[in-house]
Amino acid sequence: MKNRIKERREELGISQTELSECSGVARTVISQLENGSRKTVTSDTMIKLANSLKSSIGEIFLS
27: which residues sit within 8 A by CB, 6+ positions away? Predict the structure, then answer.
């Protein structure tokens, strides 16, 4: 699944660890999503990441 997690995270100037802490999503999951090794993501994870990245789900996961 193509996503904009890394791009948006870097725009906000936060690390994977910081995103993990504020979203409640494991840093390893964030890393896997960013590098494309994880192909599936739950709706709960999408919501947590989008909210923490101050974006909509569509902006992060459907662009």
Answer: 16, 17, 19, 20
Tokens of 37: 């090794």
Burial 3-21 (b: 16+ CB within 10 A, else e): bbbeebbeeeebebeebbe
Give the distance from CA 4 to its chain's centroid. Answer: 7
For the stretch 20-46, pLDDT in tens is 999 999 999 999 999 999 989 999 999
Residue 23 pLDDT:
98
> In this predicted structure, what is the pLDDT of residue 2?
82
- CB atoms near residue 41 (< 10 Å): 17
As a whole number of angstroms, the distance between CA 63 and CA 23 comes to 21
